[in-house]
């Protein structure tokens, strides 16, 4: 039991790391760091502007900013925070055109995050138009308000005599201060992993990924501080400006951890579907693609992966790319001028036996056939299941002898 569990865990971790690299998360983290460099001041300005519009929250902005830098940024963030404060104060004096530019910069950062996460979830049709605008606007407008409300609620609870006396007796004040960043990170990341991908994400998976990343950030913060203390190379090279490259390095590491958490959430979802049998046998998924190609061909149209997603067919983007490449090598499909896949051969000329002989997978076993879960199961799939079961039964009957019986003749 234990060795099997260890092998499953090892396989899962390997798959997560491979998916992290295949999705170009390292490059995406660098792109997000670059975007953050230009968007952090606009985001701070927008936050202050929104908070100033709410009378009860006008004085909370500085407190929230100090809490974020103290809790989520290593000790090098103090100088950067003063720079950003100066930039933000200057930005608040801009004209309406300048404010519009800041809003556009903030939207571009959110758009980059949107693309990076949807790429991990293999979503090719990201939010566009009004739906995307409303999501980004909700994040920019409601985010600061909710953050301020949570900060005020926490401060109020901490100020209550009963709570303060209890924490003083139990020595829980330090624990409360340590847990607040973890809880806040968990909440924000859970919302990020569930709301941004244009696909349904199980909340329990998002919560697991968020807790993992929140703890990882705290550990990384300690390690980063030790690195700066024990290796003063940046201070020797950059002097007083060493805080800037160190801050950018921390932002890059933070985005790496956030994207790794997203890959973890996506992998948990896929692992859950595979364990429940929701991911069909490769023969089923490649025939699903051929069926859609046949229908599109009869309509004089080509097929794109988004067509499968709209019908909620259980074919992942990885399987789509693998199967379309194989079908093209077999000479069954090709691309039209619009980049869509179309049939290149009459399917009436190809037998199921000849088709299966060219595939690298064996015929699905009976237990795999029983786990097929496709909405509105078509007649051709029922027919395939019956044929595959007949093949398995005939093969079992033909090979139903021991090796001793065979070799004794």
Automatic annotation (TrEMBL):
Name the keywords, alphabetized: Cell inner membrane, Cell membrane, Membrane, Transmembrane, Transmembrane helix
User: Which is one Gene Ontology cellular component term of this protein?
Assistant: plasma membrane
Q: Where in the cell is it found?
A: Cell membrane
Which InterPro entries is this protein grouped with? UPF0761_bac (IPR023679), Virul_fac_BrkB (IPR017039)
Main location class = membrane
Q: Which family does it belong to?
A: Belongs to the UPF0761 family.
Q: How does this chain sit within the bilayer?
A: Multi-pass membrane protein
Q: What is this protein called?
A: UPF0761 membrane protein GV64_18420
Which spans are transmembrane here? 29-51, 94-113, 134-155, 175-195, 207-230, 236-265
């Amino acid at each position: 039991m234990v060795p099997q569990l260890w092998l499953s865990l090892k396989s899962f971790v390997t798959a997560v790391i491979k998916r992290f690299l295949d999705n170009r998360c390292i490059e995406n983290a660098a792109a997000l760091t670059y975007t953050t460099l230009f968007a952090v001041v606009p985001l701070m300005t927008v936050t202050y502007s929104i908070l100033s519009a709410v009378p009860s929250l006008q004085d909370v902005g500085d407190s929230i900013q100090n809490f974020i830098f103290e809790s989520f940024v290593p000790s090098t963030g103090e100088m950067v925070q003063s720079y950003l404060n100066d930039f933000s104060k200057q930005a608040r004096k801009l004209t309406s055109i300048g404010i519009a530019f800041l809003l556009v910069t903030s939207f571009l950062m959110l758009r980059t995050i949107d693309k990076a996460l949807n790429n991990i979830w293999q979503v090719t049709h990201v939010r566009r138009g009004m739906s995307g605008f409303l999501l980004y606007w909700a994040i920019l407008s409601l985010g600061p308000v909710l953050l301020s409300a949570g900060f005020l609620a926490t401060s109020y609870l901490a100020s209550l005599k009963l709570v303060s006396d209890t924490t003083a007796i139990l020595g829980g004040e330090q624990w409360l201060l340590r847990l607040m960043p973890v809880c806040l990170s968990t909440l924000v990341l859970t919302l990020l992993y569930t709301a941004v991908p244009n696909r349904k994400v199980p909340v329990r998976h998002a919560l697991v990924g968020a807790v993992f990343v929140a703890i990882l950030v705290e550990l990384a913060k300690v390690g980063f501080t030790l690195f700066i203390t024990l290796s003063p190379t940046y201070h020797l090279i950059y002097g007083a400006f060493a805080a800037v490259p160190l801050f950018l390095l921390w932002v890059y590491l933070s985005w790496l951890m956030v994207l790794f958490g997203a890959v973890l959430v996506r992998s948990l979802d896929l692992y859950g579907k595979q364990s429940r049998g929701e991911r069909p046998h490769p023969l089923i998924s490649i025939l699903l693609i051929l069926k859609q190609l046949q229908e599109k061909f009869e309509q004089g149209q080509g097929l794109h992966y988004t067509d499968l997603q709209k019908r909620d067919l259980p074919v992942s983007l990885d399987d789509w790319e693998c199967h379309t490449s194989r079908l093209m090598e077999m000479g069954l499909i090709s691309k039209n001028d619009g980049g869509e896949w179309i049939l290149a051969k009459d399917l009436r000329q190809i037998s199921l036996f000849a088709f299966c002989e060219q595939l690298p997978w064996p015929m699905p076993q009976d237990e795999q056939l029983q786990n097929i879960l496709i909405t509105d199961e078509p007649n051709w799939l029922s027919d395939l299941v019956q044929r595959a079961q007949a093949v398995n039964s005939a093969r079992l009957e033909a090979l139903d002898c021991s090796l001793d019986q065979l070799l004794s003749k």
